[in-house]
Amino acid sequence: MALRKFRPVTPGTRHKVISSFEEITTSTPEKSLLAPIKSSGGRNNQGRMTLRYRGGGHKRMYRIIDFKRDKDAYAATVKTIEYDPNRNARIALVAYADGEKRYIIAPLGLKVGQKIQSGKGIAPEIGNALLLSEIPLGTVVHNIELTPGQGAAMARSAGSSAQLLAREGTHAVLKLPSGETRMVPIACRATIGSVSNPDAQNESHGKAGRRRWLGWRPRNRGVVMNPVDHPMGGGEGKSSGGHPRSRKGLLAKGKKTRNPKKTTSKFIIERRKKRS
Q: What is the DSSP track for 54-100?
């Protein structure tokens, strides 16, 4: 999973750095696992803009991903590794012994033809989904459930992984990608390994048009607006803008946004690291 850099033959390729896509084995998705996506452009069901800077972008179809990994009776064979336009990780098409096909998030190192399983009493090998109660301590995992049977909720993006540190009674202790340490019920499932495409964070669009293809419209900074439009707007020349805050006046850069009364706070052992 290497990166591809370009010679600056045009302004758009001068800073362009994208994936080489060498791990992709097919460009045709499984038709039975596609679903339509309606582009909202940041509008709600009343047609009013609730999210700015969204709109346009290339038309996409959603790939239905199996985040639950609850088909325990059969082993599956990896058929293809594919690109998914809706996420930065790669996805894998797997075929079960009974003929059913599903998409899963492809772990790093998963190969076509490899066998994967899920359930109790299986080996903790890359791509297998196990209960946290059966995974050896120190193992790197991804696609972690927060509630048994809910489906994967944590460590799903490209290159993400968490480490199983300990087990205490009915809960397991995990160190998450953010640096947070928290408890998760041992009846939850997780997949062995880390998520594929770890170089996604090093990619560079190279030009504004590539950003538009992804559905993002131009975004202007608050300090260049007028005072009527943003709390940081106004002033003569290049003013600093005052205290960093959002358009609605909420302080940015450091203010804790998590509700202190949230019921799941009791499961967090150590908060995530602060940005330096």
A: B------EEE-B--S----SS-EEEEEEE--TTSSS-EEEEEETTS-
Give the C-alpha separation, 238 to 12, whole Å.
Answer: 28
Task: Please give the pLDDT value at position 84.
Answer: 97
3-state class (DSSP) for residue 265:
helix
Q: Is 210 helix (H, G, I), strand (E, B) or coil?
A: helix
Instruction: Give the dihedral sign, CA 177/88/192/70.
Output: positive
Q: What is the pLDDT of residues 215-261, one digit of tens each?
A: 999 999 999 999 999 999 999 988 888 889 999 998 888 777 789 89
21-200 is classed CATH 2.40.50.140: yes
Contact 142, 195 (CB under 8 A): yes
Instruction: Of 125, 148, 145, 150, give the one whose Cα is nearest residue 135.
Output: 125
Beta strands in the chain (DSSP E): 3-5, 17-19, 34-36, 61-63, 76-82, 91-96, 101-105, 115-116, 129-131, 140-142, 162-168, 171-175, 181-185, 189-192, 268-270
Contact 164, 141 (CB under 8 A): yes
pLDDT-based confidence at residue 1 (cuts at 50, 70, 90): low
H or E element that contains 13: helix 11-14
The single-letter code of the amino acid at 179 is G
Give the global pTM: 0.91
Cross-strand bridge partners of residue 96:
76
